[in-house]
Design brief:
The complex is a heterodimer of chains A (about 260) and B (about 400). Helix content of chain A is about 75%, strand content about 0%. Chain A has helices at about 5-15, 15-30, 40-60, 65-90, 90-95, 95-100, 110-135, 145-170, 175-185, 200-210, 210-220, 230-255. The longest helix of chain A has 27 residues, at about 110-135. Chain B is globular. Chain B is of the alpha/beta class. Classes of the chains: A mainly alpha (about 260), B alpha/beta (about 400).
Chain lengths: ~260, ~400
């Protein structure tokens, strides 16, 4: 049992290590590819373009704003969340080569993914903000919503990653459950449709989805928000606090015992 | 002297799950508990290591040495007792932990150094020294996947030593790397020991332990069986090896079934020059092997023999005497026999066996192989110690 203040202090004390591990994680991923870092940018943009094409030309969803900006904004938040959660959930098990030999707070392992994916997040966000005026969406002081949106998505993802990574040590099914969940989760997140288009039960689920708040908060900066966005942000903050609390409790309990199960 | 490492009543129990916990069964509580069995890998260990002391830990495989080291490294928590380590610990449990193959040597030095608790500026300052020690100036900006295993070890060791740890944990890592680098590592470890770092060495290389550690603990079945001067610890360790009886039967070997039970050899012991029982003999010293021989059936032409086998299973020495025992031996006779030897052997573990044959070949009885250790001059190696003395003319 590692006391919570000690756990927090050890994370703070290891911030340089966290930063360098995250940078290593990010650079190593693309080092062998000849296009290198372009992939970090290209993939989410490509996915957003496909969605924008399909849902503006084929299915025709009306959002009342530029659809490409609408989708790309959603994708920025969703991609960061889903990629990071997938990577963070297996981080402790995947990091066993390191953690069975030397001690550092195990909580760093899922947090490394949270920080490493911020590079990709930042790049796509910048691209989005550059594209906005080109696609005819003017940016005003609302742009500042990006800051709380980023804080929220990082905290939310960290919380979810902490919980999933701790559980995955005990239940190795978690990896597959998350892979499956992310597929469905995407459609329950208002990435390519506005929240108001969901009705009844589906609306309740989409509104309760913690990522919805993130997406809405990002749209506050770019494409404009859904009328009920305040609620979704509040729900998202609630999830974040809950997940962070549960994650901290799990890591406090098992910090020094994870390796016995790797 | 202040104790930098202090273990009090430390125990570690591993729970082995007979079936992996399944999310569904656990969530639904279909079974109260998954089947499990527990194993105490380490139990009741009390140990203190002073600042600047180099302590050895030896023991057979599975005796709990590595678990003990993991607890010292903080990798796993003890189930009972207290592990107190003051200061920064650098575990060399395997060298180059966290080295990423795609990163260059330089990048890995930073990652590895920070894992070991160094700050960025600290690494900046000691990078040159690390590179010089690892002898790899020209490869520093090459991804480490192109490194030879020797380069890998050199760089890993250099970072660990350069991190100026208060406690250095060394687990059998120096088996890799060439002899020249190994000697360099030993020198460096002795240097940082003298500078105040405490070192714990876990090794099967008794010679390395003997050269580095003044005090050594012997682990057996998770307990610290002995803690004291290294020479005595090596003797105790060979006692344990004898108890384990997992050794190959030596050249005394198999007794044909028709003659089985004709004689038995028991109570074999090794005595040093002063007649004390020991398992650790200094090279070139006198040693006496004493055994008890019981004859159960008549033997026409008894030969009494001794064989010494080295670690690689080669016979270092065999000899026999036809004149020692009366001819023929009658059933029911009982002898205590002694063979005085000079331990003209190089440093290493040996096993000794006493045997009785009828004529030159027909084996009647062989003792259990008795392990013992010879410590000789460090540089001498091979089979026999011919006691070379070098002279410039």
């Amino acid at each position: 049992m590692t006391p919570v203040p000690e756990l927090l202090a050890s994370v703070w004390g290891s911030r340089q290590l966290l930063a360098i591990l995250a940078r290593k994680d990010f650079y190593v991923r693309y080092r062998r590819a000849s296009l290198g870092l372009l992939w970090a940018v290209g993939l989410p943009v490509f996915q957003a373009l496909v969605l924008a094409l399909v849902f503006s030309k084929v299915v025709r969803i009306h959002t009342g704003t530029n659809f490409a900006v609408f989708v790309l904004t959603g994708m920025v938040g969703w991609t960061y969340f889903s990629n990071t959660l997938s990577a963070a959930s297996t981080a402790i098990v995947d990091g066993s080569g390191l953690s069975t030999r030397i001690y550092f707070p195990r909580v760093l392992l899922p947090l490394v993914s949270v920080v490493a994916n911020l590079y990709g997040y930042a790049i796509t966000l910048v691209i989005l903000l550059v594209l906005c005026p080109i696609l005819g969406v003017g940016l005003g002081p609302g742009l500042l919503w990006v800051v709380p949106a980023t804080a929220l998505v990082v905290a939310l993802t960290a919380g979810a990653g902490l919980v999933a990574s701790a559980l995955h040590v005990y239940f190795r099914d978690i990896r597959y459950i998350i892979t499956a969940a992310v597929i469905g989760w995407f459609y329950l997140t208002p990435v390519f449709y506005p929240l108001r288009l969901a009705h009844g039960f589906v609306h309740a689920v989409v509104a309760a989805n913690p990522v919805t708040g993130v997406v809405e908060l990002l749209r506050a900066a770019t494409a404009g928000v859904d009328p009920r966005w305040g609620w979704t942000v509040a729900i998202s903050v609630g999830w974040t606090i809950g997940l962070l609390a549960v994650g901290t409790v799990l890591h406090r309990r098992y910090n020094r015992l994870f390796t016995d199960l790797l | 002297m202040t104790a930098v490492v202090e273990l009090t009543g430390v125990g570690k129990c591993f729970t082995k799950y007979e079936d992996a916990p399944m999310l569904v069964t656990a969530a639904l509580r279909l079974r109260q508990r998954t089947r499990r069995s527990s194993l105490w890998a380490v139990r009741g260990v009390d140990l203190a290591v002073d600042q600047g002391e180099c302590l050895g830990i030896i023991g057979r495989n599975g005796s709990g040495k590595s678990t003990l080291l993991s607890m010292l490294a903080g990798v796993t928590a003890p189930t009972e007792g207290v592990v107190a380590v003051r200061g920064r610990v650098a575990p060399l449990i395997s060298v180059g932990v966290g080295f990423h193959p795609e990163l260059t040597g330089r990048e890995n030095v930073y990652v590895n150094g920070m894992i070991l608790g160094m700050g960025r500026r600290e690494i900046d300052a000691s990078l040159d020294e690390i590179v010089a020690f690892a002898e790899m100036e020209s490869f520093l900006d090459t991804p480490v996947k192109f490194y030879s295993s020797g380069m890998f070890v050199r760089l890993g060791f250099a970072v660990a030593v350069q991190s100026r740890p208060d406690v250095l944990l060394v687990d059998e890592v120096l088996a890799v790397g060439d002899l020249a680098f190994q000697l360099k590592c030993y020198d460096r470890m002795l240097a940082i020991r003298d500078a105040g770092t405490s070192i714990l060495v876990v090794s099967h290389n008794l010679n390395a332990v003997r050269l580095m550690c003044s005090r050594t603990g012997v682990m057996a079945d998770g307990r610290l069986r002995f803690l004291g001067p290294t020479n005595d610890a090596i003797s105790v360790y060979h006692d344990l090896l004898g108890e384990a009886r997992e050794l190959e039967p030596g050249p005394g070997g198999q007794v044909p079934p028709e003659r089985a039970g004709a004689a038995t050899i028991e109570a074999v012991e090794v005595l040093d020059g002063e007649g004390r029982a020991t398992r650790h003999v200094a090279g070139g010293d006198r040693m006496v092997v004493r055994a008890r021989l019981r004859v159960h059936g008549p033997v026409d032409d008894p030969y009494f023999g001794v064989a010494v086998t080295n670690e690689s299973g080669n016979q270092a020495y065999t000899d026999s005497s036809r004149d020692l025992l009366p001819r023929p031996l009658v059933a029911g006779s009982d002898f205590t026999v002694e063979v005085a030897l000079r331990a003209g052997l190089v440093t290493g573990s040996y096993t000794l066996q006493i045997g009785l044959t009828d004529g030159v070949t027909a084996r009647l009885a062989a003792s259990e192989p008795l392990p013992f250790f010879v410590s000789s001059r460090p540089a001498a190696a091979g089979v026999a110690d011919l006691e070379g003395s070098f002279r410039l003319l």
